[in-house]
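Q: Structure tokens for this one, please.
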Amino acid sequence: MDADTRVTGAPQESGAFLAFTDLHFDPFFDPSLVKALIQAPSEQWEGIFAGSTITAPSGYGENANYPLFKSLLDDMAPHAGEVSFVMMTGDLLTHKFRERYAAATGDDSPEGLRAFAAKTVEFAARETAARFPNDPVYFAIGNNDSLSGDYQVKPGGAFLRDSGAIFDRYWIEDPEDSAAFSSTYPEGGYYSLTPEGTPGLRLVVLNAPLMSASRQGGDEAGDVQLRWLADELSRATANHEKVWLVSHIPLGVDAYQTITRARSPEDVKAVTFLKAPFNQALIDQSAAHAGDIAAEFAGHIHRDDFRFVTAPSGEVLTEMFVMPSVSPAYGNNPAYKKFVFDEKTGAILDVSTYILDLAAQTSGQASGQPSAASPAWKLEYSLAEAYGLAREGAIDWTAFAADLLRVPAAREHFARFYDADAGNGNQIAPANYDAFWLALTHLTGADYDAAYAAMLRGEAIGTLDAPTPVEAVLAGRGVLGAFAPGR
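A: Here is the predicted structure, written as tokens:
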């Protein structure tokens, strides 16, 4: 890789944490167990699940069953002595939890749904805490973490109050952090605290569904959150703290939906994850506090991706790590990450991605489903090694973003890692790669559309001298695979 200087600076004192997202834990995976689960407290769920005849982890197209969740935690657990905490960026509950509960139980009462959701959250929290008894877990609420339907979590509602009490009990260890978490999460779903073992670093966690383009209803709760965020960032600046900004839903443009909705080259119009005013406000906040925001983290798309807030010159101001999911519901392999960071600046120094290769697990299985025998997680790649980055010093994210466009090996890596090496559900094809790359750095709908129009005219984008013809980009829709994310 022609990465001449991707890293600058001297060696640092480094820390580490684990991160996973989009678990979509499915307590309904074995219908024969549901009655027992309803009747039993969550403390007894492990024994109930252990009695299931379904012992293999979920396959492609499915949400995370108990065997997959257990194998994830068992593989993460040996890292406990190496990390300070665990980050979970949302969507703990399975897709359509409310509908699945009613179908499995025949009970459409709000009380029954609330009780079962609370037990599901408590089970997941307890199981995770058991593997990390000395490490806190920090959670960002996802669009499926709701009793009211997708993207419809209610500020101050039952789910936030119930999950807040559970997370505070099992996942938040420090008394000051507990007080900070409890002061805002039960009402708004967002919070700000200092992560364990990281003095001078502030974790600011957002309730992204309040700002989603898919959310119905008014924007008042999102506006309140934005004002709170502005205050938190200003306070961090005044206190000389570095900030990690955590959100379930990424900034910017949904490249997959943008491409697949287009009927012709001239019909391409960017689809953003968040409502345009919220998207712009978050971009503006990231740019204004770029000297304080050391990194940003998200999930939601079930893919291994990035977003970069840039200056007009193209310089990367802040980088967002968009993490691949545990759930293989959309054709990806289950994954989690280990981040290594500079304890003084909060800068990310390296990232290791671990995957469960479901295709390898199903090899030789007549059913096409994963084998129940010891699911084998493996290191898929480290960021530094795969992309030719030095292992000490601050990564040059401007050069890295350019490499993802212009360096063939980097393009190949990014496309392969995108769905955690699954291949069968990959949304990126050679013909549409440039359109996906545009979403990394062109974060508003207007910016993306202008860059796409320039590509349509055959003009250069970034440092790419000869962009892929847009007709080929659109033709690439036919090779995107059968798993269209609904997240």
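A few notes: The first strand starts at residue 7 and ends at 8. The radius of gyration is 22 Å.
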